[in-house]
Amino acid sequence: MEEIEKLKRQIELEKQAHQQTEIILEKKALELYETSEQLQMLNENLEQQVKSSVDELKKTEKRYRHLIESVQDIIYKISTDGIFTYVNPVIKERLGFSEEEIIGRHFSTLVLPSYQEALINFYAEMVQNKEESTYNEFPIKAKNGNLVWIGQNVRRIENDDESIELVAVARDITERKKTEDTLRATQARFSNFISNLQKGILVEDENRTIILVNQLFCDLFAINLSPSDLIGMNCVSLADEIQGHFKDPENFISRVTEVLEKREIVVDERLEMVDGRIFERDYIPIFIEGQYRGHLYNFSDVTDKHFAHERLRKSEEKYRGILDNMELGLLEVDKNHKILRAYDRFCEMLGYTNEELVGQNAKELFLPEDEKGKVNEKQEEREKGEASSYELCLIKKDGTPIWVLISGAPIIDENGVTVASMGIHYDITERKLLEQELEKAKEVAEEARQAEKQFLANMSHEIRTPLNAIIGMTHLMFDTRPTNEQFEYLDILKTSADFLHSLISDLLDMAKIEAGRIEIHKHPFDLVGLLRTIQRVFQIKLDSSPVEINLLTDVKITGNYLGDDLLLNQILLNIIGNAEKFTEHGSIDVMVKLLKEEDETCWIEFKVSDTGIGIPADKLDLIFQKFKQVDSEQGHKHKGTGLGLAITKQLVELQGGSILVKSREGDGTTFTVTLPFQRSKNEVVKNNHVIKEADRSLESCKILVAEDNAMNQKYISSLLNKWHFTYTIASDGKKAVDKASKERFDIILMDIQMPNMDGYEATITIRNTKNPNQNTPIIALTASAMLDQKNKAFEVGMDNFVTKPFSPNHLLSVIQNYVNTKSEYAVMVPDEENTATKTYENNIFLDNERLTDLYGDDREYAADIFQTFLDDVLPDFQEISNLIHQQNWEALRKLAHKLKPTLGMVGLTELEQSLIGIENRAKEKPEYESLQYMWSLFQVKLAESVPVLRAELDKLLAQ
Ligand code: ADP
């Protein structure tokens, strides 16, 4: 109850409190009411105010929103823990995400994983350090996966010192990044290029601040700083630092100033360093849009190049010096003769300046008309890449000629094509003038030589003619049974005349040898007999002297040999004659041995050793020269012409032999002659040196002698009287022709050189005019032994040739040879043809008529000729094959001409005609094939003829 009471009371209390409260409340409510009235009013005012400020705000917000939405940057807000709370719609455009897709995400989810951590830390720090704003760049991934570079400004928003959010303005900087990358790559490449460039590069701006430099530049000037250290430095101080490297630092500095002032490109400026290096420097000013913005220096170390160049220059200078000193003028011309380069010496040679020559046509400028052909030929050679030397006459600027020897060569490009040619000219004008003078002198000398030859020929004639008479008369006088005293005088007379004869023969021999007109006549001869005769001759000569002559012959030397015994005799007489002349005591040993026998050739060695004065070693070479005698120290004098050994050597060599001499002064001399001979089976005709009697049957024959020299007339008439011939003498050619026209003779002996009409002319007249002697044998008598005179005699129609002085027996044999034939004709058969068939009637191959004409019944002579033809002449025909093969037509013509009469002499008249055909054809520059064909036919016939000739020879020998 109490409780209730308590409660009642409490309720009461509460009721009271409540009532009081109600009262208070009522009061309050009233107050409130009054207040709310006020408030209402206030509120109404306020509402009015708020409304207008909300309107205002709405307007502002709209403006901001519009602003935010109209910017191209992404604007977003994130909470301090990185969650997007707001993003503007630009994000859709930039990254492809909608605002809904972004809001609520952590910002790092958009960032490339590799950047995430750094970025989270970056912004965490920003918040922590309460930084007001930051800027950062990083790549993010767009919705389509593309990489987008973002550059963003982030502002931290705080309230009551508490960070509440971050507001960011993010810009798409992908394009800029790309440009930057490209720029960086370009820059890297560029600086790579600069640093790798083998040149020192230095780039300065307009204020001379270094903006680029490479390592090589630092290396060149031994700068210890790296290129990047140098960038930004002022170049003036750098120049100060490096000037010490230059040989002339002051000049370096002043030159830099000068170059910088001018601002013109300078290339390859040479700079000498103090240590000997040589640099080359380029200066290139840099202008951008017409504005000077700095310059580039480019240094290179050209020391090696410089010295190589210097060496080259020096060497070129040296060669140019040599060329100038050697007086060699160089000229380069192109293919059209246009002058490309003319060197100083060449200009000097021709009197032009370099400028006057270069570009001109060389051919037109200084080549005479008649030399142009030669130059064209040379040009063709150059085009083929060939070099050659030749002489040319050029016309100098002053119009005078200059002779040059040119060594020309093509200038060939890398494709092997001749592009120009170079000629080295050597002035040979003086030599040319000298040559011309020499040529004139040679002509004069040649004239003199001709005159000398003529003189020699005349002298030979003038001397031989009287000599002939003297020797002839001596012969005749020996025949008149002289007293002992007369005999002795005659002997002296004959010896002197013989000496004179040998002297003149020597001179003539030499002339003949020199003119290549000596003939080798091969006969069978008795070698041992010849040697014994020589020994005997010298034994008689040495009779009263203490020198003895010994002859030692090899036992293998037996029988007869085929060769020119007269020439051998002459050779041995010369050598032994010298030995006799130069030996006062002791002996002369003649040793003859058979060295070897091969292919029918016997090589025989003749060794003549004396114990005479000998020949000094230094003179040994001289003795074989013409007119050379050794001057003996003892003043030894001897007679002689100095021709003997020269002739001997020539005669030995002409026969295919050799001659050697060995000597020691004071001890004696040995001459060794080696000569080839063939063995001969034929008998040797012995000469008995007694004037033969003429055949009595010939006494009736009549002879005409044409001779102008009285003494010779006498000599010949004495002989003819002795032989009981009938003769008439005509003292010149004219008279001879006259006599021949009136009376028939059996033979005419015709001198060549005669007044009024010479022997040739007389013969031509007799042969070509109607007279009884048109076919009479005419024998030339001449003092000249020259082969050309002999040939001429045959050409004009003479039958034979006798050289003065002739021996009586020789003349008789010739007369008998010709008269015999005719007498046989006259006595036995009146018909010439019948005579012809008589001796050679059985041989249908050979021209019997011709053979009878030639040999009559002299079978021995015929056999000799046949033998000679088969042994000696036949092999010569082989040479014709060679000459045809070589197409050496001139030599062929000569050989055919030489060989053709030999065919006639053995009765091969048809072959003789064929050979004449070949000879004629050879004159006309023939076709090789046609001549070869003619020659083949000839060879077949000749081969067929050989057995016939052999059979004929056997027959002749047997009879
Ligand atoms: P020559 O007619 O004058 O003798 P050669 O031509 O026969 O002319 O000789 C020339 C020279 O060689 C002689 O003059 C002589 O001086 C020298 N000579 C030749 N043979 C002998 C020799 N047997 N002994 C010494 N000297 C010789």
From TrEMBL:
Keywords: ATP-binding, Cell membrane, Coiled coil, Membrane, Nucleotide-binding, Phosphoprotein, Transmembrane, Transmembrane helix, Two-component regulatory system
Catalytic activity as recorded in UniProt: ATP + protein L-histidine = ADP + protein N-phospho-L-histidine
Main location: membrane
Signal peptide stretch: none
Domain of life per record: Bacteria
Top class in the EC scheme: transferase
Residues where Phosphohistidine is found: 897
Coiled coil ranges: 1-63, 431-458
Species annotation: Arcicella gelida
Domain (PAS): residue spans on this chain: 60-130, 315-370
EC number, as in UniProt: 2.7.13.3
Every Response regulatory domain range: 702-819
Protein name: histidine kinase
